Amino acid sequence: MLRRFENLLDPTAGMPAPPPTAGLLRFYAFYIRQVTGLTIALFICGGLIAVMDTMIPAFIGRVVSLVSSRTPATLFQEDGFLLSGMAAVLLIIRPALFIGHAVLVNQIVNPGFSNMIRWQNHWHVVRQSWTFFQNDFAGRIANRVLQTGPAMRESLVMAFDAAWYILVYGSSAILMLASLDWRLTLPMLVWFACYAVMLRWFVPRLRDRSRRVSEMRSSLTGRVVDSYTNILTVKLFARASDEDAFVRDAIVEHTDAFRAQTRMTTAYTSTLLMMNACLIVGMAALALWQWSVGHIAIGAVATAIPLAWQLNNISGWVARSITSIFENIGTVQDGMRSIDVPRQMPDAPGAGELRVTGGEIRIENLHFDYGRNREPGAPGVLHGIDLTIAPGERVGLVGPSGAGKSTLVNLLLHFYEPAAGRILIDGQDIATVTQESLRTHIAMVTQDTSLLHRSIRDNILYGRPTATETDVIAAARRAAAHDFIMGLEDWHGRRGYDAHVGERGVKLSGGQRQRIALARVILKDAPILILDEATSALDSEVEAAIQEQLDTLMDGRTVIAIAHRLSTIARMDQLIVLNEGRVVETGSHTDLLRRNGVYARLWQRQSGGFDAAAIRDGIVAK
Predict the structure, then answer these.
(1) What pLDDT, in 10s, does the model give residues 523-541?
(2) Nearest alpha-carbon partner for 314 in 101, 105, 169
């Protein structure tokens, strides 16, 4: 039966939309609107429970009045129906409401609503620009995405319950006391006035300090994850003590923020305890005095004192709830710093699908500067790049470090927006097509190969998820990876293509990771191929083994290759030499050596500055 309720909310159903960027209330409303029926049911159920709890002191007072005014022989005869009704409320209606509330919260809200928020937050964040992730800790972003859902859920459920108890119980108690004697309402009215003043003073401070605690917790998580992610570097440089200090500073900041919050919580709780003590004593004294002078009956005393006592208990629960509500609101506000952010570099309105017919790449007057502040007229990272790469042409990008080679490739992939100029593929401006379709038609092998912490098969299939097992094995063979894959076994005993590679592929050597990445690109079979130091992690023997496969892979494709080892790109159809963000030379390897310019000087500096093409042409680098 409970499964039926659990299936009422599918957390990953539908296509998520980016959350609004207009403050906390609209952020909450964005998610609440998606579960309107559930929210209404939860709100009504909480209100009815508050009404039931308000009736208990009234029942006690009524029973005391009946017992004091009836004889044992006539009590059940005259008031049996009334007593049966009270029993039915306590035995059937009240438990049914509590069970219904528990089902709503435990079966639907806790798992479904929390994970709906997590899913939609992840969906939005993973589509942010590359720059978005470069500017923050991955651990902090993940912490915010994962914690925001439960925090929003807890703050909503507690806020509904607390609001109902304050409004329903408070108003019902005052009306009930007023019906007995208006003077009995005075202690409670004074208490509510003091409670309102107390909330007005404490709540903003609790909110601000809770947000600060959440920020410090996210920062601490980010630093810890950063240390673990780069654990090899930490150990290679023997810097564990420095990482201790890095994390210790975050712990100290979090501790200070946490202590500031708990100081405010203690002051809030202490103030409420004193107010509650005054309420109980004041209500008891007033009720007994009014009874002693004959203004009220004993039943009124039996109603007034339990009402005050129950308000004492409820207000303590509400106090803890309010503390928790604002802790969770602080977590939500911290999460909004990563989630409630406009999509950076979204697709242009009306962006279409890129259609690659030949693979021509044309770059027109391209400027880029990473947004750095410079003097007016000063050159950027790239300055006035004009290039045409013919369909199927193989081009090598050459130049010293910082010349702009990787930046040019990142602009081609539309990871950044150019400051001026444009890039066209088969006549289509890449700024006017969807980024997904653009990158679908481009395959890239990077120097810093990162694999997913999944199986070898899953990593290769990332290139083309619909590929068959035969396709995967064929791609691995072409990348000279099949033999070593078959010898792999992970810590759970999974072998071969089922073996998992560890975070970022840490269980594999650099050369093995590079070959898996090459297999992934081979399987993708995209018309445009980018090789950024694609064989840098391979030894000479393995590089020679897969060079023929790379040549086959490049056939019929437009290829852009970056390599500091010039011998690996000397056979390209055209070499483009960049220096200080400008194209300074273009031509074949042989032509550029004859010119004795920038490329020739780079060639001469490298050991083994010979290649077959140069020898055939009688050119020797000196």
Answers:
(1) 998 999 998 876 655 566 5
(2) 169
